[in-house]
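Notes from the 1:1 (GR / supervisor)

We went over the backlog. Supervisor wanted to see one worked example end to end before approving the batch request, so GR pasted a single chain during the call. The sequence is below; no edits were made to it. Supervisor asked that the structure be written out right there so they could see what the output format looks like.
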Amino acid sequence: MTHSLKGRDLISIADLSKPEIQDVLTQAAQFEQRLARGETMHLCEGRILATVFYEPSTRTRLSFESAMHRLGGRIISVAEARTSSSAAKGETIEDSARMLAAYADVIVQRHPAVGSARALADAADVPVINAGDGTGEHPTQALLDLYTIEREKGGLDGLQIAMVGDLKNGRTVHSLAKALAHWRVTLDFVSPPELAMPARLVDELQEQGVRVHQTDDMQAALAEADVAYITRIQQERFVSPDEYLRYKGVYVITAEVVRQAKPGIVVLHPLPRVDEIATDVDALPNAAYFRQARNGVYVRMALLAMVLGAV
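Structure output shown during the call:
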């Protein structure tokens, strides 16, 4: 590795430069190859990862824990931390950080409040990785998304990428758009006007020279896109069930929609899906979302090993 991440926090994807991102992706590819050969690794033997999730998670928590096990390390974990940890008794994030840092060598946290990961990192003296802070960011998802796009399309430069769905509340698309700004890409943001990508982020991307288009016409966007990044309309982000139901099902990807899209389009989704990708898409070669989920293990192995100084 040409750039050390030892001891570093990852709160926003902006915490990493393009060369550092490329180092993570290169290390992830090496770990993928080593696992394919059946290697057993002991790089993080004697190290402990704490996973603390105040919101539900399947892929992110389990892939981090799988990654640490595959590196030879150990796990301490609190799922549903809002009700099953001392947070239920009123403990602050800052106090939790000091306690967790006494027990673990690296902390992964998911929390519903924007800025919560930064607060944890400021109080902890071990590396902190943001696994999602409300509607803010999800930087490790962006890294595995980059890895997947690179694997599926052979590179990142020159691609046109459509992001579809709830772009206002979607922390995955916030982080991915920021990450893609390092490459020569065109981004099509497809959403109802009320769920559009935050204007502040759009302005930031355009200032960096990214070509950005905004539309509510999914079919037109997919006719030009190399990659379709589909997101869930997130019920938990709406103030009322009625507001959620206004947008539920507004964009649905079916096998027929894929056949009418640009040939060779790759369909991604951070998962879980609800009804926005029909199951008849799953058998198509374009459907990369389960491969995307698997890639999370390799990328999170790379990140854990790098912040712990094991590679």
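Supervisor's comment: Strands lie at 48-53, 74-78, 106-111, 128-133, 160-164, 186-190, 211-215, 227-230, 266-268.
Batch request approved.
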